[in-house]
Write a structure and sequence with these properties.
This protein is mainly alpha-helical and 116 residues long. The chain has one domain. It is 48% helix and 10% strand. It is built from 6 helices and 4 strands. It has a two-stranded antiparallel ribbon. Strands 2-4 form a two-stranded antiparallel ribbon. Bound molecules: zinc ion (2 copies).
Length: 116
């Protein structure tokens, strides 16, 4: 099996595992719309930006809210909004993101998980 095929399979597996634990849109829950089935698992720090398929970087979302995360429709959902919804420490996550942008290997190692 080729490496990229393996990665893609691991990526799918990680997202599916996350979805099984979070079947409802986390934004709808946080914004008081109740239980709405999630159809996507979004990476808060994009894969292209060094984000990994690990639970702290993933969020289950319905299609309309996914559009807000990709700034296709308003009101937009910034990374900070998503970290707040997930009850993650915003300063810790911003520091982690800065580390990834600087190519800080330690930050990358702290975000162990599937590079997807
Ligand atoms: Zn939603
Ligand atoms: Zn997305």
């Amino acid at each position: 099996m080729k490496n990229w095929q393996k990665k893609r399979k691991e990526d799918r597996k990680a997202q599916e595992a996350y979805w099984k634990e979070h079947r409802n849109c986390e934004v709808c829950l946080a914004e008081g719309r109740g239980k709405v089935e999630a159809v996507e698992v979004h990476e808060i720090i994009y894969k292209s930006g060094g984000g990994k398929c690990i639970p702290e970087n993933e969020i289950s979302t319905c299609r309309p809210d996914h559009g807000r995360m990709h700034f296709l429709r308003g009101p937009f959902l910034e990374k900070e909004d998503l970290w707040r919804i997930k009850n993650l420490d915003i300063e810790v996550m911003q520091e982690k993101l800065r580390g990834i942008r600087r190519g800080n290997r330690e930050e990358l190692y702290k975000m162990k998980g599937v590079k997807c």
